[in-house]
Amino acid sequence: MNAKTMEIEQFIDVLASKAAVPGGGGASALTGAIGTALASMVGNLTVGKKKYKEVEEQIRAQMEEAEQIQKQLLELIDKDAEAFEPLSKAYGLPKETEEQLCYRNQVMEEALWKASLVPLEIMETVSEAISILEVMAEKGSRLAVSDAGVGVQFCRSALLGASLNVFINTKLMKDRERAQQLNSRCDKLIEDGVRRADAVFDIVMKEIRK
Amino acid sequence: MNAKTMEIEQFIDVLASKAAVPGGGGASALTGAIGTALASMVGNLTVGKKKYKEVEEQIRAQMEEAEQIQKQLLELIDKDAEAFEPLSKAYGLPKETEEQLCYRNQVMEEALWKASLVPLEIMETVSEAISILEVMAEKGSRLAVSDAGVGVQFCRSALLGASLNVFINTKLMKDRERAQQLNSRCDKLIEDGVRRADAVFDIVMKEIRK
Hints:
The structure is a homodimer.
Chain A: H1 8-16, H2 24-44, H3 56-91, H4 98-139, H5 145-170, H6 176-209
Helix pairs in contact in A: 2-3, 2-4, 2-5, 3-4, 4-5, 4-6, 5-6
C-alpha cells in the first residue's frame, strides 16, 4: 500500500471495506496528518505579515517541524498496514500439537508487540503536533485561529484513536509486564495530550465567540 | 476543486498551504468521512457471520446509511470551498462611498449566511454518523469494536471542527437574531453529539481494557 498517492475516495472505500488494512490505526495517522496540515496552514497565513514580525522566527521553526510530522504521519499509514501482516500470519499458524501451539504463541507475542509500536508512534507524533498547534493558536494569525482549533481536535482524535490500537494488541500479550509498560506510556500520552488539546480548543472557542 | 479524486498527499499539501480553500471546514468534512468509513468497515466485518445473524438486518440498514453519509461528506468538502468564494469576493468589494459600503454589507451578510450553512450541514451529517457508530459499537463484530471507537472520535472532532467554521461566520453577521438561531442549533448539535460520542468511546475503551 502507498497511501500518499491513493485518491481520497479510493482510500476511504478501502477503509470502509472488510480488508484488514487500512484500519483504525492507519486512519488515525491520516487524521493526525490532516490536523498537522492545518498547523502549517496557520503558519503560512502568519509569516510575511508585518503584524506578526515578532513571532515570525518562532512560527517558521514550528512550520518546519509540522512539515516533518505531516510526512511522518503519512508514512505511518503504510507502516501500520505492514505491521499488521505478521500478526495476521501468526493467527493463521497451526495450533494442534503442543509444539505448534508453543511456536504460535511465540510468533504471536512478537507480532503483537510490533503491531502495538506503530500506533504508539502515531500517538507520540500527534502529541508533538498538538504542541505545534498550541503555538499556532496562541501566536499565529488571528484570521486563522479557527483552523488551529480544528487541527487540535483532529490530533486529539488521532491520539485517542491510535491508543485503542495499542490496547487491542497489549490486551492479548502474554508478557503482562511489557504490556503494562506500553499501556502506561499510552495513558500518559492520552492524559497529557487530551488536556492540552482541550485547553487550546477552549481558548480558540472563547476567542471566536467573544 | 474535486477533493474525491485528489491524491491524499496532494490534498494535504494544499490544505497546509496558504490557499483559502480547503480549510478547517472542508477538512472537517473529510475527517467525518473517514470516521463514517470506519462504521462501514465494522459493518462489513459483521454481516455474513453466523454469530451476528440476529443483528444482520439492522447492521445492513446502518451500512446503507453510512455509505450515503460518506458520499455526502466527500461532496461537502467541495461545497465548503464553493461557499467560500462569494465571501472572499465580498471582502474585496470597494468601501469608499456610503453607497458602496451599504452594498458591500448586504453582499457580505448573504455570503456569511451561506458560508455558515455548509459547516452546519457537516455538523448535522456527522451527528448522524455518530448514531451509526453507536449501533456498530454496540451490535457490530466485537473483533472490530476498536474501529467503531476510532470512528466516533473522528466524527466528534469533525463536529467540533465544523462548529468553529459556523461561529467564525455568525460572529460577523449583522442580523444578530439569525446569527443566534444558527449558534443555538450548533450548540445543541455539539452538546448532543459530544455526549453521545464520549459515551460510545467510553464503552469501547472499557471493553478493550477489561
